[in-house]
């Protein structure tokens, strides 16, 4: 089937834009130009002078199925991704059952193949049941399609376990992706330790809870030669040690989430679960370090850490609520509005961090608008302003403090392998 997307704008080098049409055929980009009048297309879509980008790539989402379908399903979670402009998402393995064997992993894959509306790359766990010290069969899980290995949701507490896991991942040429959290430093914390935690009389989480485990892992990554990727970096100390490791030649990459780039603990005015996330919202100096880390290449990409929960379990105090915030449907809008519109980031940089780089660092065939590449394409409206409305979410989760915020950058259409999977007009 031949599809034409006409009258769009794409971002070229040096943050310039040019008007062009895209010819999509048989799941790939067959042409990029301004005159396809001699070709007969089966269907045409008018971009109406709006922005066309490669489909966004999110290397950190929680789809919750199997085991927690009241929070999210693969179908709803991928619909949410498409509504946010994402065409590829990488799903964490904190499920029930944990996909820690070939058989259980293939059960998750079957649901993905049946229900997903965007491309889903499934992580496998580092250890059995996530919290044990018994390594999974990395070779076997890689053979059935594991994207990478992670225990996201919990940190690997034993240095010995992490070392052995890294050695095995390096041998299998697989990335090891880490949620870094030294539980011996948690002390029951539920938000960043500082003046706000004291004011709300809530136990605080030390910055060292995250950064100390990153420092440990970077030494082990240097020793083993593994590709080590750090999830949702949140502290200035973490940025510092990752920067130093990169300068030393360690194969480390890192991501940051939109909420840590935009919000700080001082924004928290009440003891409510919508503000509870892990890692927590940090201090302003941490937020500034994250922005600087993105700009100087210490942090490689932006990932949502989309973590839906049921309404009742999040609509309560910090002490009772689970950690997590949804982000698939709001990430691009928030980043565009708060950083591109204000001149802090360029549009080219944002597309790089949200599409090009996440695909590049993990070797995913995605994230570019080039002839012969997958026809994963998104159209955004950068002009019209709207308010974030959780009643319009495709996700089952509405746990976000951003509801009601005015934003630009609405997704108009999302195409996966040339097929329209989201249309704002529908």
TrEMBL record:
Active-site residue list: 305
Domain Dihydroorotase catalytic: 50-238
Enzyme nomenclature, EC number: 3.5.2.3
Recorded metabolic or biological pathway in which this protein acts: Pyrimidine metabolism; UMP biosynthesis via de novo pathway; (S)-dihydroorotate from bicarbonate: step 3/3
Alphabetic keyword roster: Hydrolase, Metal-binding, Pyrimidine biosynthesis, Zinc
Binding site for Zn(2+) 1: 60, 62, 152, 305
Catalytic reaction list: (S)-dihydroorotate + H2O = N-carbamoyl-L-aspartate + H(+)
The protein's required cofactors: Zn(2+)
Keyword Nucleotide-binding on entry: no
Cofactor note as given: Binds 2 Zn(2+) ions per subunit.
One MF annotation (Gene Ontology) recorded for this entry: dihydroorotase activity
Annotated positions binding substrate: 62-64, 94, 278, 309, 323-324
GO cellular component annotations of the record: cytoplasm
Chain positions recorded as Zn(2+) 2 binding sites: 152, 179, 232
Top-level taxon in the UniProt lineage: Bacteria
Record GO biological process: 'de novo' UMP biosynthetic process; purine nucleobase catabolic process
Reported function: Catalyzes the reversible cyclization of carbamoyl aspartate to dihydroorotate.
HAMAP family linked: PyrC_classI_B
Family that this chain belongs to: Belongs to the metallo-dependent hydrolases superfamily. DHOase family. Class I DHOase subfamily.
Alphabetized NCBIfam families for the sequence: PRK09357.1-2, pyrC_multi
Protein name: Dihydroorotase
Organism the protein comes from: Enterococcus hermanniensis
Phylogenetic lineage: Bacteria, Bacillati, Bacillota, Bacilli, Lactobacillales
The encoding gene: pyrC
């Amino acid at each position: 089937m031949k599809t034409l997307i006409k009258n769009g704008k794409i971002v070229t080098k040096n943050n310039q834009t040019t008007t062009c049409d895209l010819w999509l055929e048989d799941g790939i980009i067959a042409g990029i130009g301004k005159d396809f009048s001699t070709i007969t297309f089966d269907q045409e879509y008018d971009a109406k002078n709006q922005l066309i980008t490669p489909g966004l790539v999110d290397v950190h989402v929680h789809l919750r199925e199997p085991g927690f379908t009241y929070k999210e399903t693969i179908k709803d979670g991928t619909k949410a991704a498409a509504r946010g402009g994402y065409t590829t998402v990488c799903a964490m393995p904190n499920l029930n059952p944990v996909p820690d064997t070939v058989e259980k992993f293939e059960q998750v894959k079957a649901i993905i193949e049946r229900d997903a509306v965007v491309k889903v790359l499934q992580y496998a766990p580092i250890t059995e049941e996530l919290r044990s010290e018994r390594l999974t069969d990395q070779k076997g899980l890689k053979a059935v399609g594991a994207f990478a290995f992670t225990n996201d949701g919990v940190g690997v507490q034993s240095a010995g376990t992490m070392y052995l896991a890294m050695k095995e991942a390096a041998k299998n040429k697989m990335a090891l992706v880490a949620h870094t959290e030294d539980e011996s430093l948690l002390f029951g914390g539920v938000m960043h330790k500082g003046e706000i935690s004291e004011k709300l009389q809530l136990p605080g989480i030390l910055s060292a809870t995250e950064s100390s485990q990153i420092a440990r892992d970077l030494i082990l990554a240097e020793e083993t030669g593994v590709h080590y990727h750090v999830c949702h970096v949140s502290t200035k100390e973490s940025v510092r040690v990752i920067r130093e490791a990169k300068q030393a030649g360690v194969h480390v990459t890192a991501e940051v989430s939109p909420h840590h780039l935009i919000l700080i603990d001082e924004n928290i005015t009440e003891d409510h679960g919508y503000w509870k996330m892990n890692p927590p919202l940090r201090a302003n100096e941490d937020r500034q370090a994250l922005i600087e880390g993105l700009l100087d290449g210490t942090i490689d990409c932006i990932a949502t850490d989309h973590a839906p929960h049921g309404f009742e379990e999040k609509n309560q105090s910090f002490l009772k609520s689970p950690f997590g915030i949804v982000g698939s449907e709001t990430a691009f809008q928030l980043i565009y509005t708060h950083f591109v519109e204000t001149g802090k980031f360029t549009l080219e940089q944002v597309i790089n961090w949200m599409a090009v780089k996440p695909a590049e660092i993990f070797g995913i065939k995605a994230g570019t608008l080039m002839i012969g590449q997958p026809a994963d394409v998104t159209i955004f409206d950068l002009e019209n302003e709207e308010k974030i409305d959780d009643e319009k979410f495709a996700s089952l989760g509405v746990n976000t403090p951003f509801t009601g915020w005015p934003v630009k950058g609405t997704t108009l259409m999302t195409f996966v392998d040339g097929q329209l999977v989201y249309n704002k007009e529908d």
